[in-house]
What we know:
- Helices cover 40% and strands 23% of the residues.
- By secondary structure, it is an alpha/beta fold.
- It folds into four domains: 65-126, Up-down Bundle (Chorismate Mutase Domain, subunit A); 133-213 and 300-304, D-Maltodextrin-Binding Protein, domain 2 (3-Layer(aba) Sandwich); 216-290, Periplasmic binding protein-like II (D-Maltodextrin-Binding Protein, domain 2), CATH 3.40.190; 310-397, ACT domain (Alpha-Beta Plaits, 2-Layer Sandwich), CATH 3.30.70.
- Strands 1, 2, 3, 4, 5 and 11 form a six-stranded mixed beta sheet that branches.
- The chain starts with 18 loop residues before the first helix and ends with a strand.
Amino acid sequence: MATKPTKPRSGAAKPAKSKAAAAQPAKAAKGKAAAAAAAPETPALDLPTLRTRIDGIDQHIQQLIAERAQYANQVGKAKGKLAAAVDYYRPEREAQVLRRVVDRNDGPLQDEVLVRLFREIMSACLAQQEPLKIGFLGPEGTHSQQAVFKHFGHSIHGLPLGSIEEVFQEVEAGNADFGVVPVENSTQGTIQSTLDMFLTSKLKICGEVELRIHQHLLSRSGRIEDIERVYSHPQSFAQCKAWLREYLPKAEKIAVASNAEAARRARNADDAAAIAGASAGNVYGLKNVAGPIEDRPDNTTRFLVIGRELFTPSGNDRTSLLIFIKDQPGALYNVLSPFAKRGLSMNRIESRPGHTGRWQYAFFVDIGGHVLEDAMREALAELDELAHEVKVLGSYPVAIA
Length: 401
């Protein structure tokens, strides 16, 4: 079986410590050792006692979750009779709860583990009213579906759709409460089809998800020597091109609409394979030939959560704007200066043809802050006089863990 070669990683040399500085940790360690020796030893608990205590903790956790669910139900009733599940969902409130989870965490579990646990609890509590309907680029097993579960938990009703355009259409029509679409990859850049949809869509960005992407080579037989063709999404081919060049240089590479579609096709023949996530292999009964095979260890995709309305500030937010500039010298500098003057940081800028005329461009800009905060409101008021058109795509909580 092919494996990804291990690459040496270099790191900056650490500065040498002075003798006095080096002696301090040793002195502290010696003091702690002496204190430990003086303290009476705590007898180790036997296995039955440990299991009994864990059972007691489990019972208490379950009681607290039930109590939380009851209070969540009361919150729903306090809001009155609302039209649908989407009316009960508040992403800014969830973001605040999860940030407190991270702030309280002293280990041993990692932040992302606790965030995932609390997301599932909140997802289940919200579903007491009615599960949210979330559209995503399907079929089942895509990275977009993983992003849905990471952001909304598993107590939702997922709607796998055939294209990014369909995700926008289903949310606009009200058939989905929210949609999740990829917008950029850390190694391959922007997903242009997503940005282009915002040029005409009235939907708003309600959240963002950052998902670490691991690519695997999957096939029915599990043998690399059988593979003559590989299916995958063009972005995934680009993320794995060095690995493919080394291990499958002669295999035919066939681009498809999604990695899950690639896995679905690969299950039909022993000489076919797919590049996809491990979850797609589980869904379509494929064996792992090799992986992870992405060329960069930090390969990450950012997804956007799209909905039909803006939400209130969470305390750590990002605003996405679509700016059509006037054709004049210094136009881009002029439209960015209102934010710089007020200490608002620009996180990202991307230009696209504006579809308003030949050689006319629109700029997608991400700014730290929320449109309902004073500094952002003042900057946008000044920007209205400098730009040809400004469209607020959304103000939403910054991604958490």
